[in-house]
Amino acid sequence: MQNGKLTLLIHALKTEEYKSFGSFLQSSFFTKSEGVIRLWDLLLKLKKQSKLDQTKKEIIFKILFPKNKYSDVKLRNLFRKLTKVIEEFLIFREHQNRPTDREILLNKIYRRRNVFSLFEKSGNKISKELEEHPERGSHYFLENYQWRKQHYFHPNTEKNSTSVLQLQDAFQHLHHFYSIEKLHIEVELRNQERIYAQQYDENFFNTNIERFAAPTLLKKVSELISTQDFEIYKEVKTLFYERMDELNEGDRNISYTALLNFLITKSRIDPKIYNPEIFTLYKSGIEKEILFSDNKISGITFSNIVTLASQLSYFDWADNFIKIYADNISDKNKSDFTTIALSQLQFHQKKYTQTLATLLNYNFENYRFNYNAKILTIKTYYEQFLADVTYGELVESSILSFEKYIQRDQRLSSNQKQHYRNFTFILLNIYKNNKLDKKKKESLKKIKTLDNVSNKIWLQEKIRGKA
């Protein structure tokens, strides 16, 4: 038979699989063509008679369609359909015979479709099945590495000391996998040395892969994270943009995130220098679609971009960004992110009446946004107080009300509560000592010693602005 692939696949089927494939083929999900079923019956008969390879396709067509004129297109179409079903059957059988591989595929599906509970449950099942087998070969280390890495980097995985241990395990599993695979190849090459009298230089077994973009860049990224050095940052940034086309999506995102996190850390010390650089990086991430996945952007990134653009007085740009990308927010409570972003824009435009209207006339779906809204409301009242002292009572009452809200809320950790309490404590001191320079200098000194405080830079600006 002159269809190499189909013939090879039929020969690949085991005798005991003929019956189960026949049942598989009968499923309307895989084929609705009676011609494909009759083709299989005929080819199976020829296979059993050891005539499959010798029978010409014209004869096959004549048996299938005795009243029709030979059509090569029609027969090839039947061959193609049957080939596809056999391939699907072989995949199905492989999963039946290798349940761990089936679970691994399901795990990938759950991850891609963002079914986190099933993804996590499936991953734990894979780990348990791997541990139950005594083998500790490269397959064991590879699958453990992939599960731990994917679980750690899943957006629903909480990043804490426990998850960091999982990432450490992933690193070790990857190292073991690499070592074993490299040794497999090295052993075979050493064997070939003896057969072909070919000697390998020792440097060959320590191949330098840094000529490729990903390892070169990622090594520099690791150095940047360790040193937090601005010169290293510039090297990473240059290398990233020069060789971005050579990177896969994962390596590109890791490198970009490292650049962004470096600048954000530095901006906490000197925002005037680093915030414009962050904004440039954000714009690049938008233009090159680094910040998007399936045309979606995370709500946190969306609101951070608007806030930063507003802080830098790029008001028209921020307003346009909201209008263009609000519908692209990936989070289910996208309207919460949009409302907070819009109120941040209005606040920095000094449109305080509009800011309050936006915040007070909207009910947030996620309770965490209430904290953002309440703090921005307090800041707005304080800005109005600086221009009109009659707003003083609103400042004090809103701070005290917020403190009670924090106290009653059982959803926050003690560390989170302290984060907000430090804000209210300092602002209340600033408000009460508005005309006392000595007290405000004490507040400035106090805030410098606190790391866990909300809106720290804004508080420092308010102290200095009146000192």
Would you give an account of this structure?
There is one protein chain. Among the domains are: 94 residues, no CATH class; 87 residues, no CATH class; 102 residues, no CATH class. It is 73% helix and 0% strand. Helix 18 packs antiparallel against helix 19. The protein is elongated, with a radius of gyration of 32 Å. The chain starts with a helix and ends with a helix.
Provide a brief overview of the structure.
This protein has 467 residues and is mainly alpha-helical.
Strand content range: under 5%
Annotation field: number of helices: 22
Oligomer: single chain
Order of helices and strands: HHHHHHHHHHHHHHHHHHHHHH
Q: How many distinct beta strands?
A: 0
Rounded to the nearest angstrom, the distance between the terminal CA atoms is 93 Å
What would you call the shape? elongated
Average residue-wise pLDDT: 89
Global Rg: 32 Å
Largest pleated sheet: none
Helix content: over 70%
Structural class: mainly alpha
Low-confidence stretches: none
